[in-house]
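ingest -> validate -> predict -> emit
validate: passed (alphabet ok, no gaps, 622 aa)
predict: started
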Amino acid sequence: MALADVDVTEQKRLNDAHAAQVPWKQWGPYLSERQWGTVREDYSEDGDAWNYFTHDQARSRAYRWGEDGLGGLSDDQQRLCFALALWNGRDPILKERLFGLTNSEGNHGEDVKEYYFYVDSTPTHSYMKYLYKYPQQEYPYLDLVETNRKRSREELEYELLDTGVFDDDRYFDVFVEYAKRDPQDILVRICMHNRGRDAAQLRILPTLWFRNTWSENHDDPRPSLCEEAPGVIRARHHELGDYWLYCEGATERLFTENESNARRLWNQPIASPYVKDAFHAYVIGGQREAVNPAKTGTKAAAHYVCNIPGRDSVTIRLRLSAISRDNAFDGFENTFNERIADADEFYERIAPKSLTEADSVTRYPKLMELIAQFRKRYPELLAHVAPTDTGFIGHRERRLLSILNRRKLERVLGYLLDENEFLGPHGIRSLSRYHLEHPYVLNIGGTGYKVQYLPAESNTGMFGGNSNWQGPVWMPVNLLVVRALMNLYSFFGDEFKVQCPSGSGHYMALFEVTQEIVRRLTGTFLRDADGTRPVYGGTSKFQDDPHWRDLILFYEYFHGDNGAGLGASHQTGWTGLVAPLLDMFGRIDARAVLDSDRWRVMAGASAHEAGGGDNALNAHRP
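emit:
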């Protein structure tokens, strides 16, 4: 059955977006997590992006090339943006964006010091759910900077949980959900849970603003926001057209301009009294003159003051629509229920299933032609790669082009699968554990340089100090190993077996070896026999608390001996590869790899999961 024929609502949206250009993906989670301190905004002479545009400046300084925000969304060109601003009554600044340490501030380099989670999303972003954990005590900005700066590279990082601001559950869980009624009609539901025993007040400002494209490009027409009616903000843009933000039950609507506060930043005159940090000045500083009484501008917010009883919650509702509506909240909850059901239905459909039918074998005439040309041009290289024609031919007459013949592969895997060398409890280490006791030392000009196995964070400032390739498990390296072993298995078949782990006396074919590596990798995130997730190490809040224990973070790399997450906590760009690994090995078995076109099986699994147009896996679906 072709994907286009599958009777699943979200798949239909994907098909419409791809084939009919229905703009289901026009609005999505496209705001940056951090725009400050990036090369995107760096115009410094020395390339010091961290100090050219700091977190402290970000609330007052207009960005040029992008925007950031908490739990936000925007159109796909980041022209009109929506996100949250929060204040617990104690923080020195309005919480509008994530905070983190720069390379020079952290004892292991840059690192975000917040807890936030992308809980759910469909491919068209017809439904999305985000969670931000906000302390009720004053956010410890200074403590995080000073304590991390004092720590040595041999010590662990000082994290937000270590400061004690989440003790006794004195924090808010702020959930933000989006449900699209249609591609340009987005319902917003914000639910704030007080996890503490005592009542607490939270001010929340759902904010709508335009990225500033007019200050540098004077030919770009200036868009506008205005209060069209109580609880209704109208947005006008020469490309996007008109949108309306409906704010149910808002205390008031605030307006200003998305313009830099030159007086605060550079002690220069400002052209308008209404600047980017006006809501900070109004809410925290009590400066009523900071916002525009005419209720117009390029940045606007609905202001809610929520008094939340202990262990209770408050929900607010908004709607961003390209159509003016008289009854904006009719059918609101039904739409959310439908979109959540759509998401569940979609992911249930693509959940891995065992393959029941082998794909047909596809020959490679073009590949064979290239190999023939290669043999003619580089005979001396091929003498080492494939010493005989027989060595070139494997299972089902497949061809192998590799620097590893059978004997060399056995030797390499002897090291790779040795638990005292590369094979760790949670994947392949980036450096052999042998070098813990036997470091590699190189002397140059009387100076000794040492490479020693370090299973956790780096002990040097190399690469900013926030990456370590001397021992930890890295997901992209493991994926390359898995891919190589799958290729080799499809060539050698079940006849070639090695000990896994090395020296164990237990022999496995390469498909089984690959399964074992993937089992160790995925086990990093799953509960073990003790009910703990290795990824969270000894952090009891993440291991035991019911409001934390099932939230998964995709760390940059992992401790080589115990699997604890290290480095950046939202490195989904490569650690998210664990998802297709789980998917692929939930779908295929050894016979499918041997008897089918391996490229179609592996690529098809990814395309199928993403809901793309490649129907390569359809032959394998029951």
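The CA atoms of residues 391 and 405 lie 8 Å apart.
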